[in-house]
Design goal:
2 strands, two-stranded antiparallel sheet, binds zinc ion, globular
Length: 42
């Protein structure tokens, strides 16, 4: 199974993914969506 950004569904082929933990689950988010998490945007 390929890792995908949980927000935009991009794979690591398209964007660099960062491993995070949210709601006690390990997830990946791409560098593109990461700032929106930091700023708390939906
Ligand atoms: Zn993303």
């Amino acid at each position: 199974m390929e890792n995908k950004c949980f927000k935009c569904k991009k794979t690591s082929h398209e964007k660099a993914l960062v491993a995070i933990e949210k709601d006690r689950e390990a997830k990946f988010v791409c560098v593109w969506c990461l700032p929106t998490l930091i700023h708390g945007a939906k």
